[in-house]
Amino acid sequence: MTDQRPIPGEIPSDATVPKVVVNRLSLYLRELQRLESAGQATISSGQLGALLGFSDAQVRKDLGFFGQFGYPGVGYRCDELIKAMRDILGTNQLWPVVMVGVGNLGQALLGYRGFVRQNFQIVAAFDADPAKVGQSYDGITVRAVEDLPAFVKEHAVRLGMIVVPADRAQEVADRLVAAGVDGIVNFAPVTLTLPPQIQVVAVDLAIELEQLSFAVTSRLQMAAGAEPSTASDESGPETAPPA
Amino acid sequence: MTDQRPIPGEIPSDATVPKVVVNRLSLYLRELQRLESAGQATISSGQLGALLGFSDAQVRKDLGFFGQFGYPGVGYRCDELIKAMRDILGTNQLWPVVMVGVGNLGQALLGYRGFVRQNFQIVAAFDADPAKVGQSYDGITVRAVEDLPAFVKEHAVRLGMIVVPADRAQEVADRLVAAGVDGIVNFAPVTLTLPPQIQVVAVDLAIELEQLSFAVTSRLQMAAGAEPSTASDESGPETAPPA
DNA sequence: CGGTGTGAAAGTTTTCACAGCG
DNA sequence: CGCTGTGAAAACTTTCACACCG
After folding, report:
1. Helix, strand, or coil here: B140?
2. Of A229, B105, B146, B213, which has the fewest Cβ atoms less than 10 A away?
3. Chain A residues close to B121, C-beta within 8 Å
4. Interchain CB contact of A159 with B (< 8 Å)
5. Are B107 and A105 within 8 A, CB to CB?
6. pLDDT 10s digits, A82-100
């Protein structure tokens, strides 16, 4: 509804967008959604950046990859920018997701409401353990992995989540790809070997803690004379300046 | 034990190490540990890189930030390199961790064995809900958040995990910092505002899925004529070439 | 004004290429 | 030989700075 902006943010003509930019896009969107719920109608690149620990220029450059969304002298309209970001990230449409592996973590993820917020829906869970098949968790009945290909095809599922132990992950990934998914979130602590057209995002909780233990350790040693031994940023900038 | 290498990999004299390098270090370590269990004694930069989808030069440059670990003509000895990496990342020592928020996800993380592998141990869990306090999960009894400062001080805990809903996360983060932790893993989908000396790693599961939906969407559009619209890499390179 | 969009400059990370070593 | 370690070049990302707009 309402008016479209000058060059509505469709996909970049041909320029390639760095992954780190797409990651920040998600952070902008998350913040914008919070601001809109709080009743804020517009925001400037400087304000948005400050909330996340980025510069105003970076926010504008990032958005510039996708189009022109702002109003000089005013900033960005939250509602418009949210819609544009969701179009870009693909979350204006509902994404059905299949999960493989219904252990502790898998069960927790089945109950996690945060996915729904961004239009992801876990539509089925699979497990190799016959004792688990038929059980229900948060309204989802566990199916046998053998049923994966049929389900994925029938429901046009494009995304899968791997929540099995490390030694089973590659086999499960191969099954997901054979079944036809295009993208995988891998919670198992192994690197998957897959055809390059398959998109993979890895989440390794032990590695996240390791990054912290390094940062915390080297900050101490820094006290012993030198400079802080880490620069740049990755997944979640977090730690914005204490406003 | 056994002989130390030429310039043993201690902390970089003063050069700052990019975060992305530290992240790859964790991936190298994970792979090395797997290789060693499989009985492999040495590995070259090219082999290690190939397993993770990196170039040989990148592996050598990354290691070069911390010292000289290799043997020309041979490669790296897995056992030595593992020890060096763990020294650098800080995981040769045991890290006690406190968790705040014992909902679905928190309970699952309490039962997650993957942390132990890298020497992290969740030593206590806290929740604001009086109904949860006193309950036990995986041998850990839930405590009242009020007891956090005393516990952190008494057990010299330096790391905390936030597993509460978004609207409680900032308050919990402030409590953790007041209690004295130096680093935080934040699973809540909000950006925390904290003093800059506090290290924060953010894990937002919805954002991971969003990165996938973007990648999967733009790969499709790529079929419509242009170049792939993403470059570089972030958290987990994953998807190594199908060996 | 206050703020966007964007080329050009600065800074950072990756790749190249090769001397040197066991 | 095969492979490391490392300067130098290339590629990429961020910051700067300013024309332009409402």
Report:
1. strand
2. B146
3. none
4. yes
5. no
6. 999 999 999 999 999 999 9
